[in-house]
Amino acid sequence: MNKPRVLLTEDSASLAVMYRAYLRDELIDLEHVDSGAKTLDYLERQWPDVLLLDLMLPDMDGMDILQQIYEQGLNCSVVIITAHGSVDKAVDAMRFGASDFLSKPFDAKRLKVTLANILKMRRLNQLVHGAHDHNRESYFDFVGNSVAMQRVYRVIESAANSKATIFITGESGTGKELCASAVHQASGRKDAPFIALNCAAIPKELMESEIFGHLKGAFTGAVSDRKGAARLANSGTLFLDEVCEMDLELQSKLLRFIQTGSFQPVGSSQTEKVDVRFICATNRDPLEEVRQGRFREDLYYRLHVIPISLPPLRERDDDVLLIAEYLLARVSEEEGRHFRGFDKKAQQTLRNYDWPGNVRQLENVIRNTVVLNEGEWVSRAMLPSPLNDLQLMPNAFKPPVQAVEVTQIDPLWKQERRAIEQAIEFCNGNIPKAASLLEVSPSTLYRKLQSWENQV
């Protein structure tokens, strides 16, 4: 019954009139604003289904607006419009969840087709995931509704149906294989194989055979022909976990495979061709591996097309409690226990801990607790070390507040201005990032900056 809301951000009045004419007969509610600040004001009040966003705005870079939408996990599809189109800008836009990229000039048909495809995809996603995707507590095998995870979900959705290679980074235990699986399940390849290889778990002398397969007699122990992961993943997805562990010689063969889609099994002179979507992951800093000469630079740039950075558990707000409740229910059922949840001190302990091993460590803690204890509610004493050794009252160690003389207190507006200017300087002029640190809307900062300029 409700028509999709579309917001057009375009500072050129003549182009805005032309785009509105292009979309005149479409079944949408179209609104137009001519600046970045007005766009941010609009986003504070409501979310459009689609934002047609010009990058070159008079008051800010449109990429800052896209980044703000991405960081807040807003359920809004973004089409970037710019006269300065390039592959680099397209990739940057996809990193922050853009759905498409239009280079000026474009005709009515191109705009209509782009918009129709995005609205169709949104309707399908709503059917699959429900109407409140912007605040979902789970996504495929992920559990979590933090802003950090909403960003991850949006990038997965934006990138899933592309063939572009995805490079997942994150600490051990953050769920890199879950992420790769989610990309596969959200894509058009979901009914084809998902093949995962851990490059750190396979001896390097066997790694080439694991990826490309081998013929009988190709080496000692090759008693029969073997299909490799490349052939098994045909029409589907090949996930290479801990790819930075691969030796340099095999990296060059992997590069050729990615470039051509062709490979030779070990011991064969015949070339095979397959259709594979590549996803890789590492818990290292891949650029540092390149600098140290352990990872080929050309392979890095071939793989690092759409990066997904998985946040550590300590940066996921109260996701730790959601995941812990989910694991407690699952493990209790497996072990024949009857736990119903965590008491308040146990919850506080789970929140306070840094979780260096991330979700994998949390799962081990929950299993240990369930196996070694009985009852309805998990107490702090039931949790294994070091969790049951944590201090629950960090405020007890805060230094005493010193008395401040009245003459030292500045007017509130001066303190506010100083705090804002320090935050912007700290963020190297990135106003959306400064606003995030100050926990205010970017449009609030833009308004204040403009009012200060008018006072001068």
TrEMBL record:
GO molecular function: ATP binding; sequence-specific DNA binding
Database matches in InterPro entries: AAA+_ATPase, AAA_lid_NorR, CheY-like_superfamily, Homeodomain-like_sf, HTH_Fis, P-loop_NTPase, Sig_transdc_resp-reg_receiver, Sigma_54_int
Residues modified as 4-aspartylphosphate: 54
Domain Response regulatory: 5-119
Swiss-Prot/TrEMBL keywords: ATP-binding, DNA-binding, Nucleotide-binding, Phosphoprotein, Transcription, Transcription regulation, Two-component regulatory system
GO process annotations (BP): phosphorelay signal transduction system; regulation of DNA-templated transcription
Origin: domain of life: Bacteria
Stretches assigned to the Sigma-54 factor interaction domain: 142-371
Stored PANTHER family: PTS-DEPENDENT DIHYDROXYACETONE KINASE OPERON REGULATORY PROTEIN-RELATED (PTHR32071:SF117), TRANSCRIPTIONAL REGULATORY PROTEIN (PTHR32071)
Protein name per the record: DNA-binding NtrC family response regulator
